[in-house]
Amino acid sequence: MNFQFATAGAIRFGAGSAQGLGQAAGERMRRPLLVCGAHPERWAGLLKGLAAAPRLLVPGEPSIALALQGAELARHEACDGVVALGGGAALDAGKAVAALAANPGDPLRFLEVIGQGLALEHAALPLIAVPTTAGTGSEATRNAVLTAPEQRVKVSLRHASMLPALALVDPELTLGCPPALTAASGMDALVQVLEPYVCRAPNPLTQGLAEQAMPLAARALRRAFLQGDDLEARTDMAFVSLAGGISLANARLGAVHGLAAPLGGLLGAPHGALCARLLPVVLAANISALALQGEPSLQSYHRAARLLCHDERARAQDLPAWANALARDLRIPGLGHWGLEPGQLGAIAAKAAASSSMQGNPVALGQEQLLGALRAAL
């Protein structure tokens, strides 16, 4: 058995764990740059110890230009670390700023898809990640996803040094998360524990995390969506998100993310909402293709079905209907809602087939199978 495993330098999990943010930053950084969402006043009490820190606000999905702006600010202010507070967008922006601040020059050297994808020349600045949503698991990953508006794609910046030095995962910070955001981010978290569980290169440590996280997601996501002040449900989903980040950083993803990446670049739709509508159709395509290879190929999906359906009799073939019902209960619309048109499906399928996420899918899906999945998700 051979595998590698890496995660954040330290993780503090639980209600109230973010209250020591100022002290934690002071122990690790002389002058941090604060990267946060567009409304930092929501976290005024939490940020008292960082009142003097220069700030970069992230109003939406982080772009390459925003990351470069933040990197320049960090160098100008002689910052020696980054504190990223917010949803996945703010955390990804913070990680990209920490990387580019230590590596000035053309970022295309390091960017995947549209650039050379080279390793960083210098280690990223140390970063403290404080998520305020339960979705991306960015507090435990080594990459940052950035938008490239001119090319209408999302691209990754990736390096081992981009793993946060400290992750403060406090479910209390997610209590004010609106239902639609709770639904989309929660579905992203669910997919990020499920895809690594059934992927081509599973990791025994991430398998154990997924087996803990999947039943929690199945039990808690609807509750968090319907009752936003349910701290137990929020805590469960915060763990699912963390487990998903660790899992994708150490195993592989699959066709849901392979398709969601080009769709996100084209449509600008919430990543988690795209994953939610793709999940049932990708499950159906994968399970159908694996069934042709024989029953042993379906064992990981059979186990996942029992965990997600809370039923020892559940089988892989039950999963597409289960996932579709969950997306429906969370009121997540089809892909057509975001402007996807039938004439665009071929280009999306072709881009997805070449993605790194698709290489982790448990079975090879051809162009027609990908097109069929996209049509079913419209």
Care to give the gist of this entry?
The chain is an alpha/beta fold and 378 residues long. It has twelve helices and eight strands.
Polypeptide structure, described:
It is a single chain. This protein is α/β, with parallel strands linked by helices. The chain has two domains: 11-174, Rossmann fold (3-Layer(aba) Sandwich), CATH 3.40.50; 179-377, Dehydroquinate synthase-like, alpha domain, CATH 1.20.1090. It is 46% helix and 11% strand. It has twelve helices and eight strands. The strands form two sheets. The protein has a six-stranded parallel sheet, sandwiched between helices. It has a two-stranded antiparallel sheet with strand order 6-7. Helix 3 links the parallel strand 4 and strand 5. 56% of the residues are buried.
The average pLDDT score comes to 95
Rounded to the nearest angstrom, the distance between the terminal CA atoms is: 41 Å
**Major beta sheet summary:** 6 strands, parallel
User: What is the H level of CATH, i.e. the homologous superfamily of the largest domain?
Assistant: Dehydroquinate synthase-like - alpha domain
Number of helices: 12
Kindly provide the radius of gyration, computed on alpha-carbon positions and rounded to a whole number of angstroms.
20 Å
Share of helix among residues?
A: 40-55%
CATH class of the largest domain: Mainly Alpha
How many domain modules?
Answer: 2
Q: State the low-pLDDT regions, or none.
A: none
Stated plainly, the CATH topology of the largest domain is called Dehydroquinate synthase-like, alpha domain
| Count of β-strands | 8
Apparent shape? globular
Structural class: alpha/beta
The SSE order reads EHEEHEHEEEEHHHHHHHHH
CATH architecture verdict of the largest domain:
Up-down Bundle
Order of adjacent strands in the largest pleated sheet: 1-8-5-4-2-3
Beta-strand content estimate:
5-15%
